[in-house]
Amino acid sequence: MKHRIERVCEVIKRELGVIILREMDFGKVLVTISGVDVTPDLKQAHVFVSALGTPGQQSAVLEKLEAARGYLQAEFAKRVTLKHTPHLFFKIDAAIERGTRVLKIMNELGLDEDV
């Protein structure tokens, strides 16, 4: 069962990424799906989104995704056959941004030679 959930997470990540890339425009903000967690009953999916931009731009990305949730779920259902199309919950994933900030600080301190 665990492997099935992992496969469903990967399919959701891949297909939503394609749909968002083709169908949505976020201006100059780079938006990627960094991960997906699905509940064991496959009825809910928490989609972690990386949005490289200011906090205001990140909020705008999240709002736009929330507004398009129904459309995104319908498009996903057309592409992937599951017993239940999971209800999507979008969350900002700040891991990439934190990593970038750490690398920048290391670079400023001259510690990046070892990385």
Q: What does the model show?
A:
This protein is an alpha+beta fold. It has one domain: GMP Synthetase, Chain A, domain 3 (2-Layer Sandwich), CATH 3.30.300. Helices cover 53% and strands 21% of the residues. It is built from four helices and three strands, in the order H-E-E-H-H-E-H. A three-stranded mixed beta sheet has the order 1-2-3, sandwiched between helices. Helix 1 (2-23) crosses helix 3 (69-79).
How do the helices and strands line up, and which of them pair or pack?
Elements: H1 2-23, E1 30-38, E2 44-52, H2 55-67, H3 69-79, E3 87-92, H4 95-109
Parallel strand pairs: 2-3
Antiparallel strand pairs: 1-2
Helix pairs in contact: 1-3
Quick structural summary:
The chain has helices spanning 2-23, 55-67, 69-79, 95-109, and strands spanning 30-38, 44-52, 87-92. The chain is an alpha+beta fold and 115 residues long. Strands 1-2-3 form a 3-stranded mixed beta sheet, sandwiched between helices.
Question: Which features characterize this protein?
Answer:
globular; 115 residues; three-stranded mixed β-sheet; alpha+beta; 21% strand; GMP Synthetase, Chain A, domain 3
What percent strand? 15-25%
Tally of contiguous helical segments: 4
Tell me what the CATH architecture is: 2-Layer Sandwich
Count of discrete structural domains? 1
Overall residue-averaged pLDDT value: 89
Main β-sheet description: 3 strands, mixed
Question: Into which percent range does the helicity of residues fall?
Answer: 40-55%
Shape: globular
CATH topology name, in short, is GMP Synthetase, Chain A, domain 3
Roughly how many Å apart are the termini? 38 Å
Low-confidence stretches: none
Radius of gyration: 16 Å
Structural class: alpha+beta
User: Order of strands across the widest beta sheet?
Assistant: 1-2-3
Q: What letter string, H or E per element, gives the SSE order? A: HEEHHEH
Number of strands: 3
